[in-house]
Amino acid sequence: MDALWFYAIFFIAIWIIAILFHKKLKIDIEGPLLMRRTKKLRGFIDGIAQRSPRFWKWTMNIGVPLGFFFMFLMLYFLVISLETLLEAPSVAIILPGVDLPGQPIAVPLGYGIIGLATVMIIHEFGHGILARAEGINIKSIGVLLLAVLPGAFVEPDEDEVKKASRISKLRLYVAGSIFNFILAAFSLIIILGISLMFISGLSFGLPFVSMSGDNSLKPDTVWLNISGPVYPTFHTDGVRIDSVVPASPAEGVLQEGMVIKSINGKPTGNSSQYLQALNGTQIGDTLTFQTDKGTFTIQTVASPNNASKSYIGIRSEANEVVNADVYNIWGNSLPWMINTFKELFYWIFVLNLLVGMFNLLPMKPLDGGVMFEELLRSKISEKNVRLVTYPLSVFIISIIIVSVIYGTGRGIAMLF
Q: What SS3 class is residue 391?
């Protein structure tokens, strides 16, 4: 709730400042849209593009078919999600630092803000670099706010875009998402590099949600590769609660930072044991949590995303403790600094991958929508292009709106 109020106050303040000082700050207001344009950075983008325009074009020649692959893959998953649309919405607005009932993942505030900043910057730089590589001038660069949704943009000369060849347009349109994918790939390489240089055995994994709606983002054991013997860097002594979902059974009972040692007498020394302890839990079951702060009892309820599954409302991960041998050599700070660095690139990886794929949906005004439009133009008349793209965009937007209402909107409503 505190984070939601922070966002509400922050965006209201931005709108008040924009309305009162839009002339002085050179902010354009177009209905629910705020835009701040600048001509700065154009030389920087042009310099990068002109160093090797052929490289960027050939990179996007690979990116175009990759973009269409993800376009149709995303559309496929969106269509099959209709079966569970009102139970487990496929799309949700993820706000860093905000945890809502039924939300699939919770993005930490600091990591999330940095990750989303990289998403917007690299995406728009991608469009700008390809525009200049294709010989298309950039009119302006800027940031925008659509109601409460922040973004960035590179504004190419529309007349020059219209005159460009079809492949040039496709390379320009797909560039943003491909640059997101490239950054995601580099982030993954950095994660794996940290694991191989400092950790013997990988400690990277995607988020997962257990039957009780609990997330775990880390494995159980990581290793630090130092000169001489290889010592395990961390060991786990339970499962730590990262956050308690508001309006859940755990709220007011369990607290962030508690380490769960057992559930109903079953040990939870690592994530695997934790999931085993929750396996088979039914709605209405009473669970006894033995923690480092005492013993607590919670009764499960139906999950906000699936009425047939039990739910307690905590997000957790393996509680890692630096091993004594490593602590004696490196202390406590260095291992955790390395782990924090890896965690940051994990969220950069996740957010760039997810936003890059979402942007390729064949829905206008997303990049995927104009790509799909350009593909159709090569096969059918302009009139028929509109007959296909308009209903498809309405269809996808409808699914997204319903998902957000039943996902994010319902989660916010449950807080009151």
A: helix
Which range is least confidently modeled, 130-134, 219-223, 241-245, 349-353?
Answer: 219-223
The answer on 240 and 365 residing in a single domain is no
Give the chain's domain count: 2
Alpha helices in 331-381 (DSSP H): 333-358, 367-377
Average pLDDT on 378-394 reads 90
Q: How far apart are CA 162 and CA 156, in angstroms?
A: 11
Are 375 and 305 in the same domain?
no
201 vs 233: which has the higher pLDDT = 233
262-280 average pLDDT score: 84
148 phi and psi, to 5 degrees?
Answer: -120, 10
Q: Say if 362 falls within a structural domain.
A: yes
Same domain, 308 and 360: no
**What is the rounded CA–CA span in Å between residue 152 and residue 144?**
6
Q: Tell me, yes or no, if the pTM score tops 0.85.
A: no
Closest CA to 95 of 207, 187, 5: 5
Whether 189 and 260 map to the same domain: the answer is no
Residue 147's Cβ-count burial label (10 Å; 0-12, 13-18, 19+) is exposed
Is residue 20 in some structural domain? no
* DSSP for 180-199, written as a single string: HHHHHHHHHHHHHHHHHHH-
pLDDT tops 80 at residue 212: no
Expressed as residue numbers, the domain containing 403 is 36-193+350-413
Q: Give the C-alpha separation, 354 to 366, whole Å.
A: 14
The three-point CA angle 129-132-136 to 5° equals 135
Residues 6+ apart with CB under 8 A from 67: 170, 173, 174, 177, 178, 360, 368, 371
Q: Quick check: 376 pLDDT over 50?
A: yes
Among 185-194, 258-267, 299-308, 351-360, the least confident range:
299-308
Residue-by-residue DSSP string for 212-264: TS-EE-S-S--EE--SSS-EESEEEEEEEEEEE-TTSTTTTTS-TT-EEEEET
